[in-house]
Amino acid sequence: MQDFSGKLAVITGGGAGIGRALTKQLASEGCSVAMCDVSQADMDESCAYALDGAPQGVRVTSFLADVAMEAELEAFRDDTLKRHEIDHIHLLFNNAGIGGGGSMISSPRDVWERTFGVCWYGVYYSARAFLPALMRADEGHMINVSSVNGFWASLGPETSHTAYSAAKFAVKGFTEALVNDFRNNAPHLKASVVMPGHIGTNIALNTMREFGELSSQDIPSGDPDFVGDQQARGEAFRDTGLNPVEAAKIILQGVRDERWRILVGTDAQALDQAVREAPEEAYEQEFMETRVAPVLPSLLAALD
């Protein structure tokens, strides 16, 4: 799919970050977009941003939906096809995600399952909802956003990171399996898994917004400044890393090139190589110090 003009793209998590940047770049190329998110205010900003300077005839619509709820994604699908007056889509970007639920032991189960539900079931439910419409197009492409945590389940040996990593591994495996599934049963479709490194987005801040007040299990004993520290870390994460606009450019070029595996950022490429070269050491302190720290300095600074 070399030309996005005249196509229709669906983007989950379109209210900010990579989703907003994808919406803008696709609209600028003449591609209409239907997005969903849990924040109408964020989507309103994304819609205005995307339509500013877009070619005549481009439409950008929004729908309030929680991707962890299958019925809401089905309603999003129905709204998309009705409002765009079409029975098919060409591009499906399963992009929505949050953090949280770091530990199977100390994190509350509802927080763990919420994170897993958004990051994994949000992809699966969206794929189920939109796949028939994608198949009705003459050519289609499903793009599922995983993470470097889809091949390295860690933020370092001193940090628990289970829910997000487990979900992102699932997204990666699902997409890889779709490569052959589409080839065998829907050869006009392509699938790509996106694995970004540190992208400067609001994901950490949105995670705090999602879960509201942190439970007592998440607050270190005797640390009254913990919540303020988390806010500062979230802002630092947002203000460093690869710009989402650049990330979106890399993703869309990967779609044009029909690459099933899209690493986003030099840090993602370096970390992928490091894990492949030393998989048995990937969760040791020495690996963190010698292989990760040199390629993810901005992320580690934000987590410090």
Q: Your description of this structure?
A:
There is one protein chain. With 304 residues, the chain is of the alpha/beta class. It has a single domain, classed as 3-Layer(aba) Sandwich (Rossmann fold). Helix content is 50%, strand content 12%. It is built from eleven helices and seven strands. It has helices at 17-28, 40-51, 70-83, 109-135, 162-185, 203-211, 226-239, 244-256, 266-277, 285-292, 297-303; strands at 8-12, 32-37, 60-64, 91-94, 140-145, 189-196, 261-264. A seven-stranded parallel sheet has the order 3-2-1-4-5-6-7, with helices on both faces. Strand 1 (8-12), helix 1 and strand 2 (32-37) form a beta-alpha-beta unit. It is globular. The chain starts with 7 loop residues before the first strand and ends with a helix. Mean pLDDT is 89; it is low at 213-228.
